[in-house]
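Provenance

Sequences were taken from public entries as deposited. Structures were produced by running a predictor on each sequence independently, with no templates supplied. The record for Flagellar protein FliL from Pseudomonas mangrovi is shown for reference.
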Amino acid sequence: MAKNQAPSPPPEPGVKPAGKGKLKLILLVVVALLLAIGLSVGATWFLLSKGDSGQDEESAAPVAAAPVRQAAIYEPLVPAFVVNFNHQGRQRYMQVSVTLMGRDQAALDALKVHMPLLRNNLVMLLSSQDFALLGTPAGMEMLRQQITASVQELGQKELGKPVIEQALFTNFVLQ
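Predicted structure for Flagellar protein FliL:
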């Protein structure tokens, strides 16, 4: 059982089948788009890196001249501070965890020698606060700044330098 197929007529010269011509056109357009995108990305990268290298040379000298800032060191004060208040005839409590941020480990270690005095000063400061004011963000921030100033004052008095940059609350509970 052989199939009888009529031989297809030979293609005319200069005329291509419709499917192959469209495929070549699509491929040509895709390649041209990819080439254009690649050139634009390359040109952008070249121009931006050229601009950065000029800035690096100019700004490298001032950066090298500036003093290198040491990494921050965090020293938690444990255990947490718990103080009580008498607010409008009711007994109220506050629990605060404080962490000190400094840049000199030796100075922080030297401050640990004075920890009983530091904790006493902070307990007195915390217990003298107005309970209603502590419930507001402004009151909390004011208390944080007062704690920072108290610790810096103690450091200045005992060690001759402020020792810490700031005190941070890691836990703050009012009840």
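Residues 47 and 82 are 60 Å apart (CA to CA).
The helical segments are 18-65, 105-112, 115-127, 131-134, 137-159.
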